[in-house]
Fold:
Amino acid sequence: MNHVDKKRQRAELKRIVSLNLDSDSGVVVEKLVKQLEQLPNASVVSAYMAMQGEVDLRELFGRIDKQWVFPRVRGEDLKFYRVKNLETEMQVGAFGILEPKDELEEVRADAVDVFLCPGLGFDRNGGRLGRGRGFYDRMLKHAKPEAVKLGVCFPFQIVDEILMEEHDVRMDGVVG
Structure:
């Protein structure tokens, strides 16, 4: 695998996503509800606020009783903050995405039990292709070993093989 191949795969997945911007997140959220119900000991779950073309998790927030943390971009890193109210505790941050407000409690990555990770594409072996900045890969290196890493996507984003590099972190499962 080389960088040109990975760049080509990223471009193709961006094209596919752009053709499906009106996809319904509800079906994937239902699958996530069932998945999270199978992890009763997981109390701290990281979610994300969706960019265009990503599964919108806002409906999940009110349906599952967990401690929710959301990422905020800090330089080249993702930091997590405990969020109890999406309406009042979020602000526009990096890349125009809603992020937790500054005054919220920071939660270390090694305190998170389940990571819900967005991406452009996934494969059934846990391969994940992000947007190319490496935020999730760098952050997941600090997760506790038993933390569950779930890729979240629409079904059309699941491909036969994601081209992986040494620094890429595999998901434990993919919900799409």
The helical segments are 3-18, 26-37, 58-61, 135-140.
